[in-house]
Protein backbone atom coordinates (compact mmCIF):
# COMPACT_ATOMS: atom_id res chain seq x y z
CA UNK A 1 0.00 0.00 0.00
CA UNK A 2 1.18 3.50 -0.79
CA UNK A 3 2.35 5.43 2.31
CA UNK A 4 -0.31 8.03 1.60
CA UNK A 5 -3.18 5.63 2.10
CA UNK A 6 -1.89 4.54 5.48
CA UNK A 7 -2.01 8.07 6.85
CA UNK A 8 -5.08 9.55 5.20
CA UNK A 9 -8.74 9.31 6.05
CA UNK A 10 -10.53 7.24 3.43
CA UNK A 11 -13.50 6.02 5.44
CA UNK A 12 -15.86 6.91 2.59
CA UNK A 13 -14.00 4.55 0.28
CA UNK A 14 -13.08 0.98 1.07
CA UNK A 15 -10.67 0.64 -1.83
CA UNK A 16 -9.87 4.01 -3.33
CA UNK A 17 -10.36 7.76 -3.46
CA UNK A 18 -12.41 9.78 -5.92
CA UNK A 19 -10.15 12.39 -7.55
CA UNK A 20 -11.37 15.93 -8.14
CA UNK A 21 -10.05 18.93 -10.09
CA UNK A 22 -7.33 20.93 -8.35
CA UNK A 23 -8.45 24.50 -8.96
CA UNK A 24 -5.25 26.31 -7.93
CA UNK A 25 -3.11 25.08 -10.82
CA UNK A 26 -2.04 28.22 -12.71
CA UNK A 27 0.65 26.87 -15.06
CA UNK A 28 2.11 23.78 -16.67
CA UNK A 29 0.41 21.31 -19.00
CA UNK A 30 0.35 18.20 -16.81
CA UNK A 31 -3.00 17.66 -15.11
CA UNK A 32 -2.98 18.11 -11.33
CA UNK A 33 -5.81 16.55 -9.33
CA UNK A 34 -7.02 16.86 -5.75
CA UNK A 35 -6.57 13.68 -3.71
CA UNK A 36 -7.73 15.24 -0.45
CA UNK A 37 -7.42 18.56 1.39
CA UNK A 38 -3.67 18.27 1.90
CA UNK A 39 -2.58 16.15 -1.06
CA UNK A 40 -2.59 16.46 -4.84
CA UNK A 41 -1.58 13.99 -7.53
CA UNK A 42 -0.27 14.15 -11.09
CA UNK A 43 0.72 11.62 -13.77
CA UNK A 44 3.90 9.82 -12.73
CA UNK A 45 6.92 10.49 -14.91
CA UNK A 46 9.84 8.24 -14.06
CA UNK A 47 12.47 10.99 -14.00
CA UNK A 48 10.42 13.18 -11.66
CA UNK A 49 9.64 10.20 -9.45
CA UNK A 50 13.35 9.42 -9.23
CA UNK A 51 14.08 13.03 -8.27
CA UNK A 52 11.68 12.95 -5.32
CA UNK A 53 13.01 9.60 -4.11
CA UNK A 54 16.66 10.75 -4.21
CA UNK A 55 16.11 14.37 -3.20
CA UNK A 56 19.02 15.95 -1.27
CA UNK A 57 18.03 16.68 2.34
CA UNK A 58 18.80 20.39 2.09
CA UNK A 59 16.37 20.77 -0.84
CA UNK A 60 13.36 19.16 0.83
CA UNK A 61 12.09 22.39 2.42
CA UNK A 62 11.96 23.92 -1.07
CA UNK A 63 9.94 21.15 -2.76
CA UNK A 64 6.52 19.61 -2.08
CA UNK A 65 6.59 16.65 0.27
CA UNK A 66 6.54 13.36 -1.62
CA UNK A 67 3.77 11.07 -0.34
CA UNK A 68 3.89 8.01 -2.53
CA UNK A 69 2.34 6.54 -5.70
CA UNK A 70 -1.20 5.44 -6.50
CA UNK A 71 -2.89 3.61 -9.34
CA UNK A 72 -5.60 5.63 -11.12
CA UNK A 73 -8.45 4.02 -13.05
CA UNK A 74 -11.21 5.62 -15.07
CA UNK A 75 -14.47 4.65 -16.79
CA UNK A 76 -16.86 6.40 -19.10
CA UNK A 77 -20.61 6.46 -18.68
CA UNK A 78 -23.23 6.48 -21.42
CA UNK A 79 -23.13 10.28 -21.55
CA UNK A 80 -19.39 10.41 -22.13
CA UNK A 81 -18.57 11.54 -18.60
CA UNK A 82 -15.42 10.31 -16.90
CA UNK A 83 -14.65 9.62 -13.26
CA UNK A 84 -11.17 8.98 -11.85
CA UNK A 85 -10.48 6.80 -8.80
CA UNK A 86 -7.11 6.42 -7.06
CA UNK A 87 -6.26 3.01 -5.56
CA UNK A 88 -3.29 1.71 -3.61
CA UNK A 89 -0.70 -0.06 -5.74
CA UNK A 90 -1.82 -3.65 -6.14
CA UNK A 91 1.48 -5.38 -5.42
CA UNK A 92 4.91 -6.34 -6.62
CA UNK A 93 3.80 -6.71 -10.22
CA UNK A 94 3.64 -2.91 -10.53
CA UNK A 95 6.91 -2.02 -12.19
CA UNK A 96 7.59 1.72 -12.11
CA UNK A 97 10.73 1.34 -14.20
CA UNK A 98 8.63 0.31 -17.20
CA UNK A 99 6.04 3.03 -16.73
CA UNK A 100 5.57 5.31 -19.72
CA UNK A 101 3.21 8.28 -19.78
CA UNK A 102 4.45 9.52 -23.14
CA UNK A 103 1.08 8.76 -24.72
CA UNK A 104 -0.43 11.57 -22.64
CA UNK A 105 0.29 14.36 -25.11
CA UNK A 106 -2.01 17.42 -25.13
CA UNK A 107 -5.16 17.31 -27.21
CA UNK A 108 -7.79 20.00 -27.50
CA UNK A 109 -11.20 18.33 -27.51
CA UNK A 110 -13.58 19.39 -24.72
CA UNK A 111 -14.79 16.81 -22.25
CA UNK A 112 -17.06 17.28 -19.24
CA UNK A 113 -16.19 16.18 -15.73
CA UNK A 114 -18.75 14.62 -13.43
CA UNK A 115 -19.25 12.17 -10.60
CA UNK A 116 -21.17 9.06 -11.50
CA UNK A 117 -22.62 7.07 -8.62
CA UNK A 118 -21.91 3.76 -10.32
CA UNK A 119 -18.23 4.65 -10.40
CA UNK A 120 -18.00 5.20 -6.66
CA UNK A 121 -16.70 2.32 -4.62
CA UNK A 122 -18.97 -0.57 -3.74
CA UNK A 123 -19.10 0.02 -0.02
CA UNK A 124 -19.48 3.78 -0.11
CA UNK A 125 -22.57 4.97 1.76
CA UNK A 126 -23.73 8.16 0.13
CA UNK A 127 -27.24 9.52 0.09
CA UNK A 128 -29.30 9.48 -3.08
CA UNK A 129 -30.28 13.07 -2.41
CA UNK A 130 -26.62 14.16 -2.43
CA UNK A 131 -26.02 12.39 -5.73
CA UNK A 132 -29.16 13.89 -7.24
CA UNK A 133 -28.23 17.40 -6.13
CA UNK A 134 -24.64 16.99 -7.28
CA UNK A 135 -25.62 15.80 -10.73
CA UNK A 136 -28.08 18.70 -11.02
CA UNK A 137 -25.33 21.19 -10.17
CA UNK A 138 -22.93 19.59 -12.65
CA UNK A 139 -25.47 19.82 -15.45
CA UNK A 140 -26.03 23.50 -14.70
CA UNK A 141 -22.28 24.14 -14.83
CA UNK A 142 -21.42 22.03 -17.85
CA UNK A 143 -23.04 24.30 -20.43
CA UNK A 144 -20.61 27.04 -19.43
CA UNK A 145 -17.49 25.05 -20.31
CA UNK A 146 -17.54 25.81 -24.03
CA UNK A 147 -17.85 29.51 -23.22
CA UNK A 148 -15.01 29.23 -20.69
CA UNK A 149 -12.72 27.73 -23.32
CA UNK A 150 -13.51 30.53 -25.74
CA UNK A 151 -12.53 33.08 -23.09
CA UNK A 152 -9.34 31.15 -22.49
CA UNK A 153 -8.43 31.22 -26.16
CA UNK A 154 -9.07 34.94 -26.56
CA UNK A 155 -7.83 36.31 -23.24
CA UNK A 156 -4.52 35.84 -21.49
CA UNK A 157 -5.42 37.92 -18.42
CA UNK A 158 -8.85 37.23 -16.94
CA UNK A 159 -10.87 38.57 -14.01
CA UNK A 160 -13.59 36.60 -12.26
CA UNK A 161 -15.88 37.99 -9.59
CA UNK A 162 -15.91 35.96 -6.40
CA UNK A 163 -19.29 35.71 -4.74
CA UNK A 164 -19.48 37.53 -1.43
CA UNK A 165 -21.55 34.95 0.38
CA UNK A 166 -19.93 32.03 2.13
CA UNK A 167 -16.29 31.17 2.49
CA UNK A 168 -14.18 32.87 -0.15
CA UNK A 169 -12.06 29.79 -0.80
CA UNK A 170 -15.18 27.72 -1.53
CA UNK A 171 -15.94 30.02 -4.45
CA UNK A 172 -12.75 29.09 -6.32
CA UNK A 173 -14.25 25.94 -7.75
CA UNK A 174 -14.84 26.17 -11.50
CA UNK A 175 -13.26 29.64 -11.70
CA UNK A 176 -9.65 28.93 -12.69
CA UNK A 177 -9.60 28.60 -16.50
CA UNK A 178 -6.09 27.13 -16.73
CA UNK A 179 -6.74 24.27 -14.31
CA UNK A 180 -9.98 23.53 -16.14
CA UNK A 181 -8.12 23.40 -19.45
CA UNK A 182 -5.58 20.92 -18.08
CA UNK A 183 -8.30 18.74 -16.54
CA UNK A 184 -10.28 18.45 -19.73
CA UNK A 185 -7.21 17.67 -21.83
CA UNK A 186 -6.03 14.96 -19.43
CA UNK A 187 -9.44 13.28 -19.43
CA UNK A 188 -9.59 13.38 -23.20
CA UNK A 189 -6.11 11.86 -23.49
CA UNK A 190 -7.12 9.03 -21.20
CA UNK A 191 -10.34 8.50 -23.09
CA UNK A 192 -8.54 8.27 -26.42
CA UNK A 193 -6.12 5.70 -25.00
CA UNK A 194 -8.84 3.68 -23.27
CA UNK A 195 -8.67 0.82 -25.78
CA UNK A 196 -5.03 0.24 -24.93
CA UNK A 197 -4.91 1.34 -21.33
CA UNK A 198 -7.25 2.01 -18.42
CA UNK A 199 -4.75 2.24 -15.56
CA UNK A 200 -2.24 4.96 -14.82
CA UNK A 201 0.19 5.64 -12.02
CA UNK A 202 0.06 9.04 -10.35
CA UNK A 203 2.51 10.54 -7.89
CA UNK A 204 1.17 11.98 -4.61
CA UNK A 205 2.52 15.33 -3.46
CA UNK A 206 1.82 17.87 -0.73
CA UNK A 207 -0.87 20.41 -1.57
CA UNK A 208 1.05 23.64 -1.05
CA UNK A 209 -2.11 25.77 -1.10
CA UNK A 210 -3.95 23.88 1.64
CA UNK A 211 -2.87 26.20 4.46
CA UNK A 212 -4.25 29.30 2.74
CA UNK A 213 -7.84 30.44 2.67
CA UNK A 214 -7.45 32.33 -0.62
CA UNK A 215 -4.19 31.18 -2.25
CA UNK A 216 -2.40 33.72 -4.42
CA UNK A 217 -0.05 31.72 -6.65
CA UNK A 218 2.78 32.82 -8.93
CA UNK A 219 4.30 30.17 -11.23
CA UNK A 220 7.71 31.17 -12.60
CA UNK A 221 9.56 29.19 -15.26
CA UNK A 222 13.18 29.26 -14.13
CA UNK A 223 16.46 29.13 -16.02
CA UNK A 224 17.87 30.28 -19.33
CA UNK A 225 17.33 26.85 -20.89
CA UNK A 226 14.12 24.79 -20.85
CA UNK A 227 14.73 21.71 -23.02
CA UNK A 228 15.99 18.49 -21.48
CA UNK A 229 19.00 16.56 -22.70
CA UNK A 230 16.70 13.96 -24.25
CA UNK A 231 14.65 16.49 -26.25
CA UNK A 232 14.21 15.97 -29.98
CA UNK A 233 15.72 18.53 -32.33
CA UNK A 234 12.26 19.95 -32.96
CA UNK A 235 11.50 20.23 -29.25
CA UNK A 236 14.90 21.73 -28.58
CA UNK A 237 14.46 24.37 -31.28
CA UNK A 238 10.98 25.20 -30.03
CA UNK A 239 12.14 25.66 -26.44
CA UNK A 240 15.13 27.75 -27.47
CA UNK A 241 12.82 30.01 -29.48
CA UNK A 242 10.48 30.48 -26.50
CA UNK A 243 13.41 31.45 -24.29
CA UNK A 244 14.82 33.89 -26.82
CA UNK A 245 11.45 35.56 -27.34
CA UNK A 246 10.76 35.93 -23.61
CA UNK A 247 12.51 37.16 -20.48
CA UNK A 248 14.04 33.69 -19.96
CA UNK A 249 17.04 34.44 -22.15
CA UNK A 250 17.61 37.88 -20.61
CA UNK A 251 17.03 37.35 -16.89
CA UNK A 252 16.57 33.57 -16.56
CA UNK A 253 12.95 33.70 -15.41
CA UNK A 254 9.50 34.26 -16.94
CA UNK A 255 5.90 34.25 -15.78
CA UNK A 256 4.22 30.90 -16.41
CA UNK A 257 0.96 31.60 -14.58
CA UNK A 258 -0.60 33.71 -11.86
CA UNK A 259 -3.65 33.77 -9.60
CA UNK A 260 -4.26 36.82 -7.40
CA UNK A 261 -7.20 37.80 -5.22
CA UNK A 262 -8.20 41.44 -5.59
CA UNK A 263 -9.59 42.49 -2.20
CA UNK A 264 -10.77 45.84 -3.54
CA UNK A 265 -13.17 44.33 -6.08
CA UNK A 266 -13.64 40.79 -4.80
CA UNK A 267 -12.24 39.45 -8.06
CA UNK A 268 -9.71 36.79 -8.98
CA UNK A 269 -7.11 37.75 -11.56
CA UNK A 270 -5.57 35.03 -13.71
CA UNK A 271 -2.58 35.45 -16.01
CA UNK A 272 -1.51 32.52 -18.20
CA UNK A 273 1.82 31.49 -19.73
CA UNK A 274 1.05 32.96 -23.14
CA UNK A 275 0.87 36.44 -21.66
CA UNK A 276 3.97 35.71 -19.58
CA UNK A 277 6.00 34.89 -22.68
CA UNK A 278 5.22 38.27 -24.23
CA UNK A 279 6.41 40.35 -21.28
CA UNK A 280 9.52 42.51 -21.51
CA UNK A 281 11.81 42.77 -18.48
CA UNK A 282 9.86 45.86 -17.42
CA UNK A 283 6.60 44.00 -18.05
CA UNK A 284 7.86 41.15 -15.90
CA UNK A 285 8.58 43.61 -13.09
CA UNK A 286 5.09 45.07 -13.42
CA UNK A 287 3.58 41.58 -13.29
CA UNK A 288 5.47 40.90 -10.05
CA UNK A 289 4.17 44.17 -8.65
CA UNK A 290 0.65 43.13 -9.60
CA UNK A 291 1.11 39.77 -7.87
CA UNK A 292 1.91 41.49 -4.57
CA UNK A 293 -0.88 44.08 -4.95
CA UNK A 294 -4.33 43.15 -3.64
CA UNK A 295 -6.23 45.84 -5.52
CA UNK A 296 -6.11 48.18 -2.52
CA UNK A 297 -2.46 48.36 -1.61
CA UNK A 298 0.88 46.62 -2.04
CA UNK A 299 1.49 43.76 0.36
CA UNK A 300 4.85 45.13 1.50
CA UNK A 301 4.96 42.90 4.56
CA UNK A 302 5.57 39.92 2.24
CA UNK A 303 8.78 41.15 0.62
CA UNK A 304 11.32 40.35 3.32
CA UNK A 305 10.07 36.80 3.76
CA UNK A 306 10.10 36.15 0.01
CA UNK A 307 13.58 37.62 -0.42
CA UNK A 308 14.90 35.60 2.52
CA UNK A 309 13.52 32.32 1.17
CA UNK A 310 14.75 32.99 -2.38
CA UNK A 311 18.22 33.86 -1.08
CA UNK A 312 18.34 30.67 0.96
CA UNK A 313 17.20 28.61 -2.03
CA UNK A 314 19.90 30.21 -4.18
CA UNK A 315 22.52 29.28 -1.60
CA UNK A 316 21.29 25.67 -1.53
CA UNK A 317 21.29 25.31 -5.32
CA UNK A 318 24.77 26.78 -5.64
CA UNK A 319 26.00 23.78 -3.67
CA UNK A 320 24.18 21.15 -5.75
CA UNK A 321 26.68 19.30 -7.91
CA UNK A 322 25.56 18.26 -11.41
CA UNK A 323 21.82 18.99 -11.05
CA UNK A 324 20.06 20.66 -13.97
CA UNK A 325 16.44 21.70 -13.43
CA UNK A 326 15.36 22.15 -17.04
CA UNK A 327 11.74 23.28 -17.47
CA UNK A 328 11.25 23.39 -13.69
CA UNK A 329 9.04 26.04 -12.11
CA UNK A 330 9.18 28.02 -8.91
CA UNK A 331 6.01 28.75 -6.96
CA UNK A 332 5.49 31.74 -4.68
CA UNK A 333 2.31 31.46 -2.60
CA UNK A 334 0.64 33.67 -0.01
CA UNK A 335 -2.85 34.17 1.39
CA UNK A 336 -4.97 36.81 -0.36
CA UNK A 337 -7.37 36.84 2.59
CA UNK A 338 -5.29 39.14 4.75
CA UNK A 339 -5.90 38.81 8.47
CA UNK A 340 -6.02 42.06 10.39
CA UNK A 341 -5.20 42.52 14.04
CA UNK A 342 -6.18 45.49 16.18
CA UNK A 343 -3.42 47.68 17.55
CA UNK A 344 -3.09 47.81 21.34
CA UNK A 345 -3.80 51.53 21.54
CA UNK A 346 -7.01 51.36 19.47
CA UNK A 347 -10.28 52.55 21.02
CA UNK A 348 -12.81 49.65 21.06
CA UNK A 349 -15.72 52.04 20.49
CA UNK A 350 -14.07 53.52 17.43
CA UNK A 351 -13.46 50.06 15.98
CA UNK A 352 -17.20 49.35 15.84
CA UNK A 353 -17.57 51.87 13.06
CA UNK A 354 -14.67 50.59 10.98
CA UNK A 355 -15.88 48.89 7.84
CA UNK A 356 -14.07 46.47 5.56
CA UNK A 357 -13.02 49.38 3.36
CA UNK A 358 -11.24 51.10 6.24
CA UNK A 359 -8.46 48.53 6.23
CA UNK A 360 -6.71 50.16 3.30
CA UNK A 361 -3.82 52.61 3.54
CA UNK A 362 -6.07 55.65 4.09
CA UNK A 363 -7.36 54.19 7.36
CA UNK A 364 -3.95 54.54 8.95
CA UNK A 365 -1.87 51.99 10.80
CA UNK A 366 -3.27 53.05 14.17
CA UNK A 367 -6.55 51.20 13.59
CA UNK A 368 -5.65 48.04 11.70
CA UNK A 369 -2.27 46.46 11.25
CA UNK A 370 -1.66 43.68 8.70
CA UNK A 371 -0.32 40.53 10.30
CA UNK A 372 2.79 38.95 8.85
CA UNK A 373 1.45 36.44 6.34
CA UNK A 374 3.15 33.13 5.66
CA UNK A 375 4.82 33.03 2.26
CA UNK A 376 5.87 29.78 0.62
CA UNK A 377 8.59 29.34 -2.01
CA UNK A 378 8.83 25.90 -3.65
CA UNK A 379 10.35 24.28 -6.71
CA UNK A 380 8.03 22.04 -8.74
CA UNK A 381 7.99 20.02 -12.00
CA UNK A 382 11.08 17.85 -12.39
CA UNK A 383 10.21 15.82 -15.48
CA UNK A 384 13.38 17.01 -17.25
CA UNK A 385 15.71 17.23 -14.26
CA UNK A 386 19.04 15.45 -14.60
CA UNK A 387 21.92 14.64 -12.29
CA UNK A 388 25.05 12.48 -12.53
CA UNK A 389 23.73 10.37 -9.64
CA UNK A 390 20.87 9.11 -11.81
CA UNK A 391 23.36 6.88 -13.62
CA UNK A 392 21.55 6.21 -16.89
CA UNK A 393 21.81 9.70 -18.44
CA UNK A 394 24.15 9.94 -21.40
CA UNK A 395 24.90 13.62 -20.71
CA UNK A 396 26.52 14.43 -17.37
CA UNK A 397 26.79 18.02 -16.18
CA UNK A 398 29.28 19.41 -13.70
CA UNK A 399 28.83 22.17 -11.14
CA UNK A 400 25.72 24.19 -10.31
CA UNK A 401 22.77 24.99 -12.58
CA UNK A 402 24.00 28.47 -13.50
CA UNK A 403 20.92 29.30 -15.57
CA UNK A 404 18.57 28.62 -12.65
CA UNK A 405 20.79 30.45 -10.15
CA UNK A 406 21.03 33.39 -12.58
CA UNK A 407 17.24 33.57 -12.72
CA UNK A 408 16.95 33.43 -8.93
CA UNK A 409 19.39 36.29 -8.46
CA UNK A 410 17.55 38.46 -10.97
CA UNK A 411 14.22 37.61 -9.33
CA UNK A 412 15.63 38.66 -5.94
CA UNK A 413 16.99 41.91 -7.39
CA UNK A 414 13.69 42.83 -9.05
CA UNK A 415 11.67 42.16 -5.89
CA UNK A 416 14.12 44.33 -3.97
CA UNK A 417 13.62 47.10 -6.55
CA UNK A 418 9.84 46.90 -6.10
CA UNK A 419 10.26 46.98 -2.31
CA UNK A 420 12.60 49.96 -2.35
CA UNK A 421 10.60 51.95 -4.90
CA UNK A 422 7.36 51.40 -2.98
CA UNK A 423 8.87 52.72 0.25
CA UNK A 424 10.11 55.99 -1.25
Automatic annotation (TrEMBL):
Enzyme Commission number(s) of this protein: 2.7.-.-
GO MF annotation, one: ATP binding
Annotated SUPFAM superfamilies: SAICAR synthase-like
GO-annotated biological processes: inositol phosphate biosynthetic process; phosphatidylinositol phosphate biosynthetic process
Pfam families: IPK
GO cellular component, as recorded: cytoplasm; nucleus
Record keywords, A-Z: ATP-binding, Kinase, Nucleotide-binding, Transferase
Domain of life: Eukaryota
Enzyme superclass (EC): transferase
Annotated TM spans: none
Family matches, as InterPro entries: IPK, IPK_sf
Gene3D superfamilies linked: Inositol polyphosphate kinase
Homology family: Belongs to the inositol phosphokinase (IPK) family.
Protein name per UniProt: Kinase
Amino acid sequence: MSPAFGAMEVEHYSKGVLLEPFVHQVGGHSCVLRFNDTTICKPLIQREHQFYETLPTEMRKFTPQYEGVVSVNFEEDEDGNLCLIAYPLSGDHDNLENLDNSDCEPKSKLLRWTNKKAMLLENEKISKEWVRQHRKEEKMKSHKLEEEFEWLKKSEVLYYTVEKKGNVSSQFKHHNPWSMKCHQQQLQRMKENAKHRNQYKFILLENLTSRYEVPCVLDLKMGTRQHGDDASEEKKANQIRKCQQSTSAVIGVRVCGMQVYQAGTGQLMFMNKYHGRKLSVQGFKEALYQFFHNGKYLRRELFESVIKKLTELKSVLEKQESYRFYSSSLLIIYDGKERQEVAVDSDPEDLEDLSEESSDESAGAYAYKPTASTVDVRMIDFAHTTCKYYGEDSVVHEGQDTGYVFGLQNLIDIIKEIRDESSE
